């Protein structure tokens, strides 16, 4: 306890008493995850104002052997930014490091601090007529540091890649409190080991990301969407290949959803118009981002859909003729999660597969689930162009949600075993945190786990950085 | 010596006597770099035929404490695949692991073994109407394993990224001889630390890459080039921004060259037609890769060049009207290195800079060199779109090459100091090997060097993997 008081005093001396929160009221919102499922404890919530202060705090944590839980917008889905209930750790909130340091439209880069909210970074790019393509549901409150620590995905991965692919350099405070000045905005740099990509996706277990150089791109002149109705996921794959051949990098979105997804949207959001005259087993939402004009995008999309109809790949198609119509089609896709939640509690899986295997994965896994859990309802949708499925399960119509949730472990086992047989991933874009840590140990090979442990041991020998997360 | 004989016997037992070369004649070509500047020694050249045999050999190297120098096509420029002259090591040649295991056009991936020659991999992609974009001068003899171990660059980086960005998963034999089965062809996978990118670019110092999942892409329908004549590198940057805004991802090449470059080509390769009526201070070669048609690419390129001429960004421009003309323009660019070599020995630098800084870097560094080495000739060209310059120096007209080479260290110091002031990299695409190891130690921050060393120590505690390279 004396140690703890000395440590708190040292933190206050380093960054000021306003930024070391110790009362339960002040700490509360930092100790619970956004879905309010997990609550932890902490000695204090510490809020440094710049990189040097982050380094000073981490040095104190080394001196007093205090574990550190880095936290940005705290919007993660796997409890990676919430402390455990030991009460030994501090939460290191990065939200005061929220500046956009520079925007360089010619180099097509911007330097952004870890605590900057994603949407603010997007807007700063837009102000110089550039696009920061990283985009996801939480963009109004998630932060760049968290996006990089979890290697966030989102809706622009098909064309621009994950958060990892959008980062050229990092400023990092190591587990020992040293600052790595790696903010190089270079497209090519082959001078030693790739430290950057080691910190990206490590969920704060190897060090603290304090700033990043992000890639920005020319703004597309037009974005246009269409929706195609088709029989099977395999038909959706044929449409994907057709679209990639015809549109190349202009194709920026390719989302699959089953009919049940849109039935739930229709039931719970009746104000959203269903775009077809009749229901079909599956639908694909396509998006083109065109560097020329809306007319050019429209002609390209029309030609593609005509070809798909002629070849009987899809049975019907609608093409948005305005930005408003495009938004409406996206809204159908984006409301699936909420509609499923309004239908009752459900079991979520964020999995990825080799794209060519998705049809077989869905039919095989659906059948296995029906065999073991007859009547359970698959609400399957996702970023098909990235091989990323949100393979969610709702209870059968006469079953309570709690009844289904009681079977969660068994259902996860069926789904994740199937994912593994198809050489897929049990966490496509959400990360590991504590939620999937046991699953990771089950499915990752012992040799990969051993390599990860030896890297963790090398960079954080005192195990102070976000202990208990990932590994 | 007994140990050495026992080790050789064990290797022969593991993979057969045909594949353990011990005579000087058999070993010779594996012990010298392609430019014949550095020769090393080795106990043996060991040529396993598959991944299990690689693992068996590495296990023996652990047992007998024998260092390992992995080697692919041995085309590297920094002596990374040549052993030192201690004679303690083996060369581990991967050339027998040369299969293309699978090509999956729907997932847009191929699985290729480390010893497969790049051109063979390109052709296998082409056979299913897909493009493996990695392309570089040595593609007829370099291998995929070496391309990944050095994170190769080349001519398609502007649109498709370096070798790193083209790889989704790796099969690796660790320094202990364990096999990591990481051949996952997934676009999204957030399950722990990024081991893949740690092995990529490590130049064989952390383990041996034995196979990789590579991304492939739709073939463009047309490729078209143009050349613009302009006054300054800054004008070239304005043209780059204009082209990026107008063409988006269709722009796949943007190469800068100074007038002296093309004067040397004209002098030593008089059969190559100079495309302009008069000389200008600088030239840019642009390439579009169009997913629609040649007509579409041509119209886009014409509109771009008209705009650039109107805005006085460039003073003249030629547009290739056929594939043959396109090739001729590329040939001018690709012959610069040879023309400079025919002019005499010279000093090469493979540097990268923030793209927006390139104009200032060139004028500042040119001036510094003229101040310290009056009359030396800058032969400056490179992948401007990637920020990568081949900033080469030829002797002044009345100076011998040997005279210039005697000043190599001082010239490197001026150039690399300047690169560092502009926050650039002293090795953009060639890597470190032994050639730039001292430079790396000089320019990389001590904390980054310390992190690299701790990773090396963690993954290869016996220092058996390509010792003396990189770090």
TrEMBL record, chains A, B:
Molecular functions per Gene Ontology: catalytic activity; FAD binding
Example of a GO biological process term: respiratory electron transport chain
Cofactor: FAD
Pfam family, one: FAD-oxidase_C
Entries under Gene3D superfamilies matching the protein: 3.30.465.10, 3.30.70.2190, 3.30.70.2740, Uridine Diphospho-n-acetylenolpyruvylglucosamine Reductase, domain 2 (3.30.43.10), Vanillyl-alcohol Oxidase, Chain A, domain 4 (1.10.45.10)
Entry keyword annotation includes Flavoprotein: yes
Key words of the record: FAD, Flavoprotein
Coiled coil, from the record: none
Stretches assigned to the FAD-binding PCMH-type domain: 38-219
Stored PANTHER family: BLL6224 PROTEIN, D-2-HYDROXYGLUTARATE DEHYDROGENASE, MITOCHONDRIAL
Similarity field: Belongs to the FAD-binding oxidoreductase/transferase type 4 family.
Protein name (Swiss-Prot/TrEMBL): FAD-binding protein
Upper lineage: Bacteria, Pseudomonadati, Pseudomonadota, Betaproteobacteria, Burkholderiales
């Amino acid at each position: 306890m004396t140690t703890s008081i000395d440590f708190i005093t040292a933190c206050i001396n380093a960054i000021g008493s306003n930024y070391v929160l110790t009362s339960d009221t002040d700490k509360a919102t930092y100790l619970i995850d956004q879905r309010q499922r997990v609550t932890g404890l902490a000695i204090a919530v510490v809020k440094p104002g710049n990189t040097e202060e982050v380094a000073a705090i981490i040095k104190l944590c080394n001196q007093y052997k205090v574990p550190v839980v880095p936290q940005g917008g705290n919007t993660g889905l796997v409890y990676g930014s919430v402390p455990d209930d030991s009460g030994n750790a501090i939460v290191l909130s990065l939200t005061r490091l929220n500046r956009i340091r520079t925007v360089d439209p010619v180099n097509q880069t911007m330097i952004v601090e870890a605590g900057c909210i994603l949407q603010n970074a997007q807007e700063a790019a837009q102000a110089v007529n550039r696009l920061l393509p990283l985009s996801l549901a939480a963009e109004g409150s998630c932060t760049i540091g968290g996006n990089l620590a979890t290697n966030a995905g989102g809706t622009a991965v098909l064309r621009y890649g994950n958060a990892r692919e959008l980062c050229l350099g990092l400023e990092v405070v190591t587990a020992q409190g040293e600052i790595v000045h790696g903010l190089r905005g270079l497209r090519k740099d082959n001078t030693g080991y790739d430290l950057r990509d080691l910190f990206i996706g490590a969920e704060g277990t190897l060090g603290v990301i304090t700033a990043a150089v992000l890639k920005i791109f020319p703004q597309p002149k037009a974005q246009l969407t269409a929706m195609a109705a088709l029989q099977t996921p395999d038909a959706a794959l044929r449409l994907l290949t057709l679209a990639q051949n015809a549109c190349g990098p202009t194709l920026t979105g390719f989302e699959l959803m089953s009919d049940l997804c849109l039935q739930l949207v229709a039931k719970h959001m009746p104000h959203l118009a269903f775009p077809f005259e009749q229901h079909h087993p599956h639908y694909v939402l396509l998006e083109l981002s065109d560097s020329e004009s809306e007319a050019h995008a429209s002609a390209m999309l029309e030609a593609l859909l005509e070809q798909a109809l002629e070849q009987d790949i899809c049975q019907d198609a609608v093409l948005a003729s305005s930005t408003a119509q495009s938004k409406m089609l996206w809204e159908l896709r984006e409301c699936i999660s909420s509609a499923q939640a309004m239908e009752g509690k459900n079991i979520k899986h964020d999995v990825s597969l080799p794209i060519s295997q998705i049809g077989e994965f869905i039919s095989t896994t659906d059948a296995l689930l029906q065999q073991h859990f007859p009547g359970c309802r698959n609400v399957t949708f996702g970023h098909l162009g990235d091989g990323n499925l949100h393979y969610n399960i709702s209870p059968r119509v006469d079953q309570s949600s709690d009844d289904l949730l009681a079977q969660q472990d068994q259902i996860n086992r069926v789904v994740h075993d199937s994912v593994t047989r198809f050489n897929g991933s049990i966490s496509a874009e959400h990360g590991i945190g504590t939620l999937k840590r046991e699953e990771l140990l089950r499915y990752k090979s012992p040799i990969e786990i051993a390599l990860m442990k030896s890297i963790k041991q090398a960079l954080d020998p005192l195990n102070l950085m976000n202990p208990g997360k990932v590994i």
